[in-house]
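Everyone, describe these structure tokens:
***
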Amino acid sequence: MSESKYIGPLHEMACTTITDLWNDSCSIEELTFSVAHGAVGATTNPSIVLYVLNKEMHLWKERIRQIADENPSFTDDEVAVQLNKEMAVKGAEILRPVFDREKGKKGRISIQTMAKYYRDPKRLFAQACEFAALAPNMQIKIPVTKAGIPAIEEATYAGISVNATVSFTVPQCVAVAEAVERGLRRRESEGKDISTMSPVCTVMCGRLDDWLKHVAERQDIIVDPACLEWAGVAAMKRAYRIYQERGYRLRLLSAAYRNHMHWSEFIGGDVVVSIPFKWQQRYNASDVACVSRIDTPVPKAYMDELTNKFVDFRRAYDEDGLTPEEFDTFGATAQTLRQFIDAYEQLVGIVRNVMTPNP
């Protein structure tokens, strides 16, 4: 097959495998480019929305003022939420042709429930319902916290395609899969349609790597630095094997890119790779071959180091390594929740500066 058929390695993957490419951004410019290269979905989170707003402020500054003028009682926080919704809707419009072509199974954009609601299943579920109504092709991100698990089940039962996020570990992936299955079975038992639902569970591979690097520094653990680039890959591959063996009706999604393995090691799997635009450019310019590696095991030497030297890797890799009560306090979870909440507060600050500029 001629290489000239493909724009780059990501396009080749999208055309020749069952691995789906998503764009990890709601940027109009980036998403348009990514769809042209085979992307069939997109994701957002508070950090991404902040990045997009800073990059595309010329597209949104006047709209922020309009939202405030149209809603005179809105706080800066409420204007920020509305802005977040509208950015996601713009992305949904770009993906709508894919959604229609694939009959709802692809072509969705993920919008995240408020990270600060991570302890409240009722608020998470209510906001999931609110966001799902914004467009037919919305996918709703709910954090995999103790409170997030029942919210994921209820959202699934309500017919919402979820994207379980703030997720790094095999125990979280299994808990999500079981919650989604409960929700699907409840719908089926009542004769409700599930044919267009396409739930996913994220594994934030790079953030698990980041956490173990932090642990190594804090605890003075000497380790082959290469093994710390494989922790997230190992967790994703372990969760993938479990999903395949048990026939769970949702897919895994890799996110939080730090190296090419967070893409290349999952090629060929029935998974989603949600890749930031800058990493898409790097991968398309690389000489990394587009070959199936999903079933290739992580090198034993790296697995041995990770397993023997890091309690938190064992907790992340073993199916029973964490209970739902421990999800919230796992290091990567706490770090990510803090970062997402901080990013949202920065977003509100930008909105506030537009609404009430310095005289």
